[in-house]
Write a structure and sequence with these properties.
Layout: H1 6-106
């Protein structure tokens, strides 16, 4: 009767174990690759968000500058309107004075 060598029974178990370890390592490698891709994607999103935030700040600064210029222009427009009304009143008064002088000379 022949006895099985102790290593003969262990060989299939070792091969199966090695196969399981290899499969686990491959899954781990794939997971690490997916994690790296996710991190790169997140970093790109963060970079884009930073660029968008900078652009938003520039646009907000430009909006403030334009609003200030608009306020100045409106102020100038109101001042011109007041001057225009004053000139119009003065012209009307001058025309009345001239009319009165001409009427007095005609008499």
């Amino acid at each position: 009767m022949q006895k099985a060598a102790p290593n003969e029974a262990a060989v299939p178990k070792d091969a199966a174990l090695q196969s399981d370890v290899s499969a686990s390592l491959e899954r781990l490698g794939n997971s690490v690759q997916h994690l790296r891709a996710a991190v790169e994607y997140r970093l790109k999103l963060d970079e884009n968000q930073g660029e968008l935030r900078s652009e938003f700040n520039r646009m907000n600064d430009e909006r403030k500058r334009l609003a200030a210029r608009l306020d100045q222009a409106e102020g100038r427009g109101q001042a011109m309107q007041q001057v225009n009304q004053d000139v119009s009143r003065r012209l009307a008064a001058a025309m009345e004075t001239i009319r009165t002088v001409l009427e007095n000379q005609a008499q």
